[in-house]
Write a structure and sequence with these properties.
heterodimer; A: about 300 residues; alpha/beta; Rossmann fold; Alpha-Beta Plaits; 2 domains; four-stranded antiparallel β-sheet; 11 helices; 14 strands; about 35% helix; disordered C terminus; B: about 280 residues; mainly alpha; 14 helices; about 0% strand; globular
Amino acid sequence: MAAIELDGLTKRFGDVLAVDDLDLTVEEGEIFGFLGPNGAGKSTTIDILLDFVRPTDGTARVLGYDAQKESLQVRQRIGVLPDAYHVYDRLTGRQHMEFVVESKGADADIEAIMERVQILEAADRKAGGYSKGMRQRLILAMALVGDPDLLILDEPSTGLDPNGAREMREIIQAENDRGTTVFFSSHIMEQVEAVCDRVAIINKGGLVAVDSIEGLRGSTETTTTLRITVSDIDDDDVEMVRAHENVRSVALDGTTLQVTMSGGSKFDILNELDDAGVEVGDFSVDEYSLEDLFVKYTTEQQEVEA
Amino acid sequence: MSALAVAKKDFRDAAQSRALWALLAVFVLLSSLLSYAYAEFPAEVVGSGTDGASVGGLIFFTSGIVTLFVSLTAIVVCYKSIAGEREIGSIKLLLALPHSRRDVFLGKLLGRGAVLSAALAVGLLIGFGLGFGLIGDFDLVPVLVFLVLTLVFAVTFVGIVVSISATTGSTSRATTLSIGFFLLFELLWDAVATGIFYVANGFSFAGDAPDWYFLVTQIPPSSAYTASLITLLPETADAVGIGVGADQFDAFYATTSIGFVFLVFWLVVPLAVGYRRFNDADL
């Protein structure tokens, strides 16, 4: 059983397509990073998982339950750190925890959990007086009540200093070691890179890449994109380039042929084109780092289709 | 039941708020002041037809002012109940937990209802205690009937405002709608009813009002409350000489009991609408 399974998930707010036909599977036991710039549709997707928002089309399943029809079963078994949340200023940290324990009907050691995320010393103070980092820890402590099978964390490092962000990652890692699946969103590659087993990159509501960090890095470190200005090119020529063993993808946009390849010689491609009677004009070469890849994926309309 | 956990949290939260204690103080003060004014100067505050202060007189005198006060405080206590949590995002903490939206809605209703009822009950009991002392008389049954019905009225108004709050994620919109409701049904309804009669009568005030006009005048929650109170305490109302003008009409429905119908309407319909809107909303 997958921890999260999205099938053709679509959400439209009026004219805005926030989530566009998203298919995604998160396996049990992994730490999964959900990466994209602000406004990419990450929070909307998470909101659908929690039934804050209802999809226009498609389905979401969490731990085998339908996220809309069986939302209570879902929320009984998960822990959540929502985005843009707000604590109850007049209640203490401990009262927040008591409320969660009561809500989940859990048999939990409140102090032990608060200790785990290092917020215990502030347990009896009102949450309104907490710093941003302390609030984040409190919400995380609340998310850990009842030993959830899945943690959903929406931008968990927002507002934390580098030290706090590192501690957050350590807590995520520790929870994962206890067998909890972790699904967390971020708009910063670096945070995801350090802790995730696999990553999905989304932009404008659609999925642009899903891979392990190694996979992404492996492909990007050796991936080269050629932009070749051509004329007199036909479909057979494009197919010929596509058939080349090192070529990952080919796209023709007007007179620009874009070729993504891993390894191999770019001159082989140029020569083949030349041999086939294609006139080759200028060409440029781009090589990407992981961060570049993310920026490219999420700032341009994706041009390269596999 | 999960709604109780929400209600308890909500009550705990509110009990920490200075506003609640201010509310309680105001209720105690207002109720005591009303009792004092009535017991000491019955003719001046009720009108010269009265033959001295009585328990029944105090009940009906208080009831006339308590509706205004309860409706206003219900707005203050409840307009943010759901819209506010949606606006700042704390509702995401609530609904990330295994609470259905129905439980959150009911929990809010119970929590806020308990806050207002507690303050109101304490205020009225203290005020009446003072009043009975000054009048030198005491009659348990009418007082209990009054207290219970007034709490029902308070919960009804809490339901109306919580429901309004549940239809929107913006507190300014919730404020506008709540105040609009209050203006329309509590302050301006006489004018509205007259206007309806005028239009339905072919833009003329000539002739007697038709029977259905009585129903129109009984629509506001406070009218329903007053009519219900008269129905439950007919002898007391008689002795005080208070009525709703039903005897000017000749229809089977022209009785004070119609108040119960409208009271139930205001208790049930806003909640149904508010819950539906909240349940279907994207938060």
